[in-house]
Every structure is written in C-alpha cells, then in structure tokens.
Amino acid sequence: MDKGLQTEGKLNVQNMIEKRMQTKTLGQSLEKIVPWFLLLCAIVSVLTTVGILFTLLRESIGFFSEVSIIDFYTGTEWSPWSGSFGVAPLIGGTLLITLIATITAVPLGLMAAIFLSEYASDKARRIIKPILEVLAGIPTVVYGYFALTFVTPIFQAIIPDLGIFNALSGGFVVGVMIIPMVASLSEDAMNSVPNALREGAYGLGATKHEVVFKVVLPAAFSGIVASIVLAISRAIGETMIVTIAAGATPSLTFNPTDSIQTMTAFIVQAATGDTSFGSTIYYSLYAVGITLFIFTLGMNLIAQYISRKFREEY
After folding, report:
1. Considering only CA atoms, which of 255, 253, 235 is closest in space to residue 162?
2. 270: closest CA among 164, 262, 70, 58?
3. Which tens digits make up the pLDDT trace of 106-157?
4. At what angle do helices 280-309 and 263-271 cross, to 10 degrees?
5. 245 and 170 Cβ atoms separated by less than 8 Å
6. What are the sequence ranges of the domains in the chain?
C-alpha cells in the first residue's frame, strides 16, 4: 500500500512538472510574440500620423500653387465661394472660442481638482469624480444643441441683443466640455505630490489653505500647466459645438456676442456642401486643416516642454 501511495505521488509530481513545462513554454512563446505585436501597433500609429501629414501637405501644396501663402495667412476676408481666401477670420474665430473656453474651464476644473485631491473624503471622491468624468463621454453634438437651446436663451436674458448664434455660448460650452480634462489631469498631478511635503508644512504650522496653495500647487505646477495646455488644444480642435452654436459667419472680430466661424466649422461646412473635387475650395479644406494641425501640434509641444522644464521628481 505504501508502494502504491509512493507511485501515485511520483505520478502527481511528474504531472505537475509536465504542466509547469507546458505553461513555461507557452509563456516563453507569448514573451516573444508580445513585443512584436506592440511594435506593430507603434508602427501603425506612426504610419497613420505620417499618412495624415503627407495627405495634408500634398493637397495644401495644390492649394498654395493657386493662392499665395502670404495672402492666405494675412488676408482678412474669407469667402472661398467668391474667391477670397484670407484665413485670418477663421483663425480669429478659433482663438476667440478657445479663449472663452479657457476662461471657463481652467478656474472650474482647477478648483474641482483641488477639492477632489485635498478636501474631499474618499467616499465623496468616489462619487464626484465619475460624475465629473461623464462630461467627457457626452457626444459633442449634444453639447452643441445644449448650447443652442439652453445656454443661449439664458445668456439672451442677460444680454438682450445677443443673437441666436454667437461665440459666447459656443465657447462657454466648449469650456464645460474640457473641464474633466483639466480636473482629472490636475488632480493626478496633485495626488503625485508626496504626503511628506504636506506633513512637513503642517509641522511648521501651515494652515490647510497655505499647504494647498503654497506647497501642493507649486509642486504639481508642471502637471497642472500641461493639463491646461492639452485642454486648450482640445478646444482648438472642437468641431460640432461651434458649428451648431457659434454660427457660420467668418468675420474677424473678438466680440463674443457676434456670430463667428472657426477653422473646424468651415471644414464641416465645405465638406458637406457642393464642393467639387479638385477645385480651389476643395484644396482650401486641406490648407485650413494643416493650419489647424500646426496649432494643435504647437500646443502639444508646449505642453511637453513645460512638463519637462518644471517637472519635480521626488
């Protein structure tokens, strides 16, 4: 009987060894496959970016062969169906929307981040943060009609002469849309600040307010600024909200009560209209697109520079 138990024990150990070897072989195979799969994903991402840039450049060259690049960027009249290709009104409209959105989102988002990081209890944080981040999942078309049918009437009650299409409503709702980006990334930056800094400040007699604004915020400065810059680049590229709420009047104005048109709104207007392939108006889509690409690329580079320049390592 003892021999039988010994034989059974040897078989169980042998089976365990065989299963272990099979698992190890499978793991080794996966370790060889996964890096190549990840490399393939990286290559696809890079090639996609290169392909987009190549398309923009190729079609933009066709446009600038017919329209002077100097006239394009210095002209103050944008009426492509009449032969006027001065993109300054579109750039001005884009910057106006971005400015209003930034004024709206940065204070609200930063204050929300401070509350969630420094004042809220764990229970409150678990409830409030998901609700806040739901804003990021709402379709921008819904935001656009929200601005048109809800926000604009409220502003009209305050500003009687405000038109139905205006930059103020569009910019405000774009700001609401990017609040989660500012709040979430800023909170992550503040949570990364070591508690030892807070405890040291408390040990020196600092109040809660002083710890937040004189210790935590300066320590998380690079992450906060990077979140703001990324949110601004998101506002620059917003399409549907400004298309629906801000109108389609390409005028070079910085009056938020006026109807304006942004670069993205023109792309939507021209792409869904009767623009014939190969026409100057068709190529102008790509010229405006590469201008928008330059803006967003510049904002992303600024965000990366600020993150590297002011990053605190603990």
Report:
1. 255
2. 262
3. 999 999 999 888 888 888 888 888 888 788 788 888 998 899 899 999 998 8
4. 150
5. yes
6. 1-65, 70-309
Find, among 91, 35, 98, the residue nearest to 233 by Cα.
98
Owner of token pair 């330059």: 294
Which CATH superfamily groups domain 70-309?
A: MetI-like (1.10.3720.10)
Residue recorded with tokens 């926000």: 151
- Coil vs helix vs strand at 258: coil
Alpha-carbon gap, residue 1 to 285, rounded angstroms: 87
Token pair in block for residue 178: 């990017």
Q: Name the phi and psi angles at 163, rounded to 5.
A: -75, 170
> What is the pTM assigned to this prediction?
0.81
Return the closest-CA partner of residue 268 out of 285, 246, 291.
285
- The 3-state DSSP class for residue 250 equals coil
As a whole number of angstroms, the distance between CA 223 and CA 226 comes to 5
Query: How far is residue 297's CA from residue 306's CA, in Å, rounded to a whole number?
Result: 14
d(CA 175, CA 106): 8
User: Average model confidence (pLDDT) for the chain?
Assistant: 82
Structure tokens at 299: 């904002």
Q: Residue 111 is encoded by which pair of tokens?
A: 């204050």
Per-residue pLDDT of 190-200, as tens digits, reads 888 888 888 88
Burial of 95 (0-12, 13-18, 19+ CB in 10 A): middle
287, 80 in Cβ contact below 8 A?
A: no
Name the token pair of 192. 């990364």
> Which residue type is seen at 105?
A
Decide the pairing of beta strands 84-85 and 78-79. antiparallel
Q: Which helix (H) or strand (E) holds 78?
A: strand 78-79
pLDDT in the model for residue 307: 72
Single-letter amino acid code for the residue at 19: K
